[in-house]
Design brief:
The chain is α/β, with parallel strands linked by helices. It has helices spanning 37-57, 69-108, 110-140, 160-167, 180-187, 266-284, 321-334, and strands spanning 23-27, 30-34, 149-153, 193-201, 205-212, 217-221, 224-228, 234-238, 246-249, 293-295, 302-306, 311-316, 340-343, 354-357.
Length: 358
């Protein structure tokens, strides 16, 4: 294949004013555009203009300082925090909007409206009750109810003044400021007081009703006597020998445990219950007044002392008690002038009671 090369001289000259036209040279049938000199000049001018513009842009700019890793981490953390804060705020706003939607939905719900009306009525009623109670309290705490009189009833051993003193109630105190529980506890500090009730009377009077324990037995204790009731309560330590009160001997309670207001040991309390039954049967046979003391040391053989008759009676246990008391009654009547020991602690199927006179 023959290569054709066109000579530039044979080509036609370009028209005047067409300086921008690019000359073409044909090499091996390929057309290559060759820029003219004028075009080169224009391109240079454009490049220079662009440089000037770029220079003008960055005349006032400063160089960006280098950032360390720590500062970069701080910036990242700050951004993360800001992001989390924004997310929280968005979440709060969403929750708030949701609550508002629920609230508006409830407002439109007829059941909710009815429930609200009902609750409002209840609140109104409660408010009225509070007002009424407040008015009653103000009335009760007024000077009309100041205590002027203190009455005491049911006391025999303890004097009225002592009970009032124990109660710690003062005249002039508001009747309704008296704390009943506190007054009862104060009065019960006295061992003789078994029970107390407090009543408010009229406008200015308070009544104290007491139930006293009664002395049922005496214990010989350090040259004196410990008064006890029929439940084993120690009521008082006194040097007076009470007439007509039975003494108990052979008790198990130690002297250290004989304390006013306390009780005897359980074994002594059990024996007291037995003695009370013996005395009840003795009273039926009119011989209780002769019994001055009882020895309770041996529960299988109680010993009665008849001081006025100068007789000692071995009673045994609680078996055949009526028969024993009948024998004792008969002997007291028939052997008035005799003194000694009477044995009622025998087997009544095989043996009769017997006496050992002095």
């Amino acid at each position: 294949m023959q290569k054709k090369v066109t000579d530039a001289k044979n080509k036609k000259a370009p028209n005047k004013g067409a300086s921008n036209v690019v000359k073409k040279e044909s090499i091996f049938n390929y057309d290559v555009e060759v820029p003219s000199k004028n075009n080169n000049k224009k391109l240079k001018k454009k490049v220079q203009k662009n440089k000037k513009r770029n220079d003008e842009k960055y005349i006032d700019t400063k160089e960006v300082p280098k950032i360390s890793k720590k500062e970069l981490e701080k910036i990242k953390k700050k951004k993360r925090k800001e992001k989390l804060k924004k997310e929280k705020e968005i979440r709060k706003q969403e929750i708030k909007e949701e609550k508002e939607r629920i609230k508006n939905r409830k407002k439109r719900n007829p059941k909710v409206i009815a429930r609200r009306k009902k609750s409002l009525k209840i609140i109104e009623i409660l408010f009225l009750i509070v007002i009424i109670i407040s008015a009653i309290l103000l009335f009760l705490l007024s000077p009309i109810f100041k205590i002027k009189n203190i009455e005491v009833k049911g006391n025999e051993y303890i004097s009225t003044n002592e009970i009032i003193s124990l109660s710690m109630i003062e005249k002039g105190t508001n009747l309704f400021k008296v704390r009943k529980r506190e007054v009862i506890d104060n009065i019960k500090q006295n061992a003789y007081i078994e029970n107390v009730t407090i009543n408010r009377k009229i406008l200015d009077t308070i009544q104290i009703n007491v139930k006293e324990r009664k002395v049922a037995f005496m214990l010989e204790y350090k040259g004196s006597y410990a008064y006890i009731d029929n439940n084993g309560y120690i009521l008082e330590i006194n040097s007076n020998d009470l007439q007509g009160v039975c003494k108990l001997k052979g008790y198990k309670t130690t002297e250290e445990n004989i304390i006013v207001g306390e009780k005897l040991v359980e074994e002594d309390i059990k024996n007291i219950k037995v003695i009370l039954k013996i005395l009840d049967v003795a009273e039926n046979y009119e011989i209780k007044q002769y019994i001055s003391s009882i020895d309770i040391e041996d529960s299988s053989n109680y010993v009665l002392y008849l001081k006025s008759e100068n007789k000692t009676v071995y009673l045994g246990d609680m078996s055949n008690l009526d028969i024993k008391m009948l024998y004792l009654q008969s002997i007291i009547e028939k052997e008035k002038d005799e003194s000694g020991t009477l044995h009622l602690n025998v087997d009544y199927k095989n043996k009769y009671p017997y006496a050992s006179w002095m």
